[in-house]
Write a structure and sequence with these properties.
Blueprint (H helix, E strand, L loop, with lengths): L2 E6 L2 E5 L7 E2 L5 H7 L1 H13 L5 H38 L11
Antiparallel strand pairs: 1-2, 2-3
Helix pairs in contact: 1-2, 1-3
Length: 104
């Protein structure tokens, strides 16, 4: 009996036993598109469909794409924190309480 595990949305791995290698069933993952762009994601999707059963090569690309997405989200959060700090500073200069006078 084959047990399937969803690694990430759209990417499912299946293997009959724990010691046997896992294979990627679907490479339809937004992670690749977000991390590498639509052109490279489409290229990896066709490679995955042409070479079923090879998870080793694709795992590293999923990790790289995940790191790129996480880096982008981290930078976005830093920018948001900077603007929040600037907003509070401006509100203090105007004589407002940054916690009570926040529109929202």
């Amino acid at each position: 009996m084959t047990d399937c595990v969803a690694f990430k949305p759209g990417c499912t791995g299946c293997g009959p036993e724990l010691h046997e290698p896992w294979r990627v069933e679907a490479v339809d993952d937004d992670l690749l598109e977000t991390g590498f762009g639509p052109k490279r994601a489409r290229r990896w999707k066709t490679r995955g469909e042409n070479n079923p059963g090879q998870v080793g090569g694709f795992a590293s690309y999923f990790r790289k794409a995940q790191k790129k997405v996480e880096r982008k989200h981290f930078r976005d959060r830093k920018v948001l924190m900077y603007y929040e700090k600037e907003r509070k500073k401006l509100q203090r200069q105007m004589g407002q309480d940054p916690y009570l006078d926040t529109p929202g």
